């Protein structure tokens, strides 16, 4: 049986990076235009909170509102274009083995954990803290955090607008692939949340593979 660690990138090519984002940890990298980032949910049901910035001008960054409005759908799947506030393309979801990724659930924080789950959770690490730690490596701070994508996270929306966080649709080894439409900086919080089902109450590792597809003959 094939191990999840043996699964190739969804878009083949020269491997530029092949790294593990630790459980409850963070990850970041610049992905060059044309390169493809494959995220592998190694153990299943692991939310991967993600922010995207133009690598050369981080004031140009992922906008949930522009992305949702342009595609007319709250959820992301193959073909979804991740856009900045001015509508410019940052990355495109070119392949997806899950079919549904969240744009509205946001990132957990120590403050939101306290409000939702009680003051006894105040000490728990959260995605906002991961983003701040990882973003600091690139000169980013709290003012640079915006609404994020939650890959592999299942947040159904009821007809009355009520949101729920429920068991994920992913499974061990499920993958998605994002093509960089320009040089982008990708920040990831491998979500540490243990108070709701977004990680199956057990945060686990994910694999981050960046490939450079072979140039097509002219």
Beta-strand share of residues = 25-35%
**What structural category arises from helix and sheet content?**
mainly beta
Assign an overall shape: globular
- Report the biggest beta sheet as strand number plus sense, adding barrel if it closes: 6 strands, antiparallel
Residue stretches low in confidence (pLDDT < 50, at least 5 long) are: none
The number of distinct β-strands equals: 11
Rg to the nearest angstrom? Answer: 16 Å
Q: Mean pLDDT across all residues, rounded? A: 89
Strand order of the largest sheet: 1-11-3-9-7-6
Structure annotation, total helices: 3
* Helix/strand order: EEEEEHEEHHEEEE
Which bin fits the share of residues in helices? 10-25%
First-residue to last-residue Cα separation: 39 Å
Describe this structure in words.
- The chain has 218 residues and is mainly β.
- Helices cover 12% and strands 31% of the residues.
- It is built from three helices and eleven strands, in the order βββββαββααββββ.
- The strands form two sheets. The chain has a six-stranded antiparallel beta sheet. Strands 2, 4, 5, 8 and 10 form a five-stranded antiparallel beta sheet that branches.
- A hairpin with a 5-residue loop joins strand 6 and strand 7.
- It is globular.
- It starts with 13 loop residues before the first strand and ends in a 6-residue tail after the last strand.
